[in-house]
Amino acid sequence: MKWVLVVVVVLAALGVDFGIWWTPFLAGAVIGIVEPRARIAVPIGAGIGLLMWGYPLSVIQLKVGLVPTAQSLAAIMGFGHQGLIPVLLTCVVGLLLGLCGAWLGSAVRTLIQPAISR
Fold this sequence. Notes:
It is a single chain. 31% of the residues are buried. The protein is built from five helices and no strands. It is mainly alpha-helical. The chain has helices spanning 2-17, 23-34, 38-63, 67-77, 84-112. The chain has one domain (2-117).
């Protein structure tokens, strides 16, 4: 399980770096299929999604600064100049992608392997 987790995180990070924004969903689905316990797989998938969408934001912040862009986006959204709101919403989207992928993977796993045979 640990090596699968490492491979999935690396592939999801590479995918997000190359603009394939939905790779945390696939990573969560793989974790959901590999991990037999959904109560473990779903939080891990959510964490992968949060990290994979938060990582590019932190890199942008360190390189060029995210504050002016985030404040402009917040103003367009109607939140004044509260730049934290678009950043948090972006991280929530990543979290939900990973969470939904892990949930779907766990559901598919239970379809393939019924509870009686576990």
